[in-house]
Amino acid sequence: MSEVLKVTIISDVIAALDAGHLKLTDVESVVAHTEHSYASVVDTFVDDAGLNFELAKQANRLLARFISSADHQLTPAERLIDMGMMYLDFAESHPGLFNYMFSYEDKDKWLDQNFAEIAHANFALLQQTIKEGIEKGVFVAKYEPVLSLSAWSMIQGLAHIQANRLSPLSESLSQEAKRQVLENLYSGLLTDSYKAVYKA
Question: Where, by residue number, does the polypeptide cross the bilayer (predicted)?
Fold first, then answer.
């Protein structure tokens, strides 16, 4: 398998997804909506499952690059907002891939350690920020088991609204407005003492 060809095909599939040209990610649909031949796609990925497995891994890698670009010099609460903004940037710049990531079904994907590590790395970044915030008294310690999931769920919902333009305000929200929405969503994660400082 040519690694260069694999990367090229996956990049073209992502571009076709984001442009709205590609709705299904089986081999025949990919061949129909890219310039790659059936033989080259099958030789590279074998079948639909192989193609989608590599696409899902690349999607998670790309998301990780966005999330990890958040400013790690910020305080935990501010960094959480920045990570959320990066998540929104990913969803809005890759709407097709974003939707694909959360509709891709393969019960065996989690059995592959490489896939699991890539996919869980994104959640680990969030967990690390929450843990640091708890240690510094920023987040409510007694809610530690659900803080990361709460934060992820909230940003996932907003990202879905933005990526799919489900709100009449989706296209008109400025960066400042999106940040304000995130601050409102995440305010419940903060301790009472920190809330007072945060609003000052």
Answer: none
Task: Say how many CA atoms lie within 13 Å of 168 toward its Cβ.
Answer: 0
pTM over 0.85: yes
pLDDT averaged per 10 residues, the chain (length 200): 90 97 94 96 93 91 93 93 96 95 73 78 91 92 87 94 89 91 90 66
3-state secondary structure of 139: strand
State the Cα–Cα distance between residues 39 and 46, nearest whole angstrom. Answer: 9
CA distance 96 to 41: 20
Residues 165-179: b if buried by 16+ CB within 10 A, e if exposed: eeeeeeeebeeeebb
Q: How many CB atoms lie within 10 A of CB 83?
A: 25
| CA 173 centroid distance within chain | 20
Tokens of 81: 């907002």
Count the alpha carbons within 13 Å of 52 in the hemisphere toward its beta carbon: 20
Tokens 């969503």, residue? 185
